[in-house]
Write a structure and sequence with these properties.
Blueprint: H1 4-9, H2 13-46, E1 51-58, H3 71-78, E2 86-91, H4 103-117, E3 123-126, H5 128-136, H6 149-154, E4 159-163, E5 170-176, H7 182-186, E6 194-196, H8 204-215
């Protein structure tokens, strides 16, 4: 009677592989999983994620139309940043329609308000309704604290003003970008768009620079 060892030796290569898989598949899967984790960890350590220098939120934008290299990527390239080491985070997933307040619109606005409150937005773009709602709640920086005086004079006809809810004072909290700008060329927007900086922004210096870059058209 053949021993198990002799029986194994007499098997074809295919049968041997089936035998090994049948009896040792769990240990083999465990080894493969450990190897995968080790390789994945080594790759991640060797190629770290780029540092996020700024977070931009584009409300009512069209993310599916934007090209892979958008205006934010071009800004980094033109300013000499290594894009493997530095990045600008762009969120173009929020849609808000004040005239048709559906459940999804309410959720989007709540998400936007929460992101502003938590300081997760450095640069905001959107339509007048978006800026009206955030401006009334004093959620946006005054443009006089964002742009230098010469640019405020140059673009005075583009400044956007809201009335604060609590104080009733007029606040210039946004600015219309040129009709043709980096965001429209990328396909994010096809209509006029406002830009501003939330009062809770963390990376305000970068946000101001990018805003001035967008104003160049």
């Amino acid at each position: 009677m053949q021993t198990e060892k002799e029986s194994f030796q007499n098997m074809t290569v295919g049968k041997k592989l089936e035998h090994i898989w049948e009896y040792y598949k769990l240990p083999l899967l465990g080894i493969a999983l450990v190897l995968f984790i080790i390789i994945y960890t080594i790759v991640r350590l060797a190629t770290p994620e780029p540092e996020v220098l700024m977070r931009a939120v584009l409300v009512n934008a069209s993310p599916m139309l934007a090209e892979e290299e958008d205006t934010f990527a071009r800004y980094l390239t033109e300013r000499g940043y290594n894009r493997e080491e530095a990045a600008i985070s762009v969120n173009a997933s929020l849609y808000f329609d004040r005239e048709h307040m559906s459940e999804s619109n309410a959720v989007s606005y709540q998400a936007l308000a929460a992101m502003v409150m938590l300081g997760e937005i450095d640069l905001l773009t959107g339509d007048a309704d978006t800026f009206d709602l955030l401006g009334v709640e004093n959620g946006l920086m005054a443009m006089e604290d964002v742009l230098p005086e010469e640019l405020l004079e140059k673009y005075q006809d583009r400044l956007y003003t809201v009335t604060e809810g609590e104080t009733g004072r007029q606040l210039v909290c946004g600015i219309w970008l040129p009709d043709v700008n980096g965001l429209t060329r990328d396909g994010y927007y096809v209509t006029k768009v406002l830009a501003g900086i939330p009062i809770t922004a963390v990376n305000t210096d970068m946000a101001k620079e990018v805003l001035m870059y967008l104003l160049e058209g």
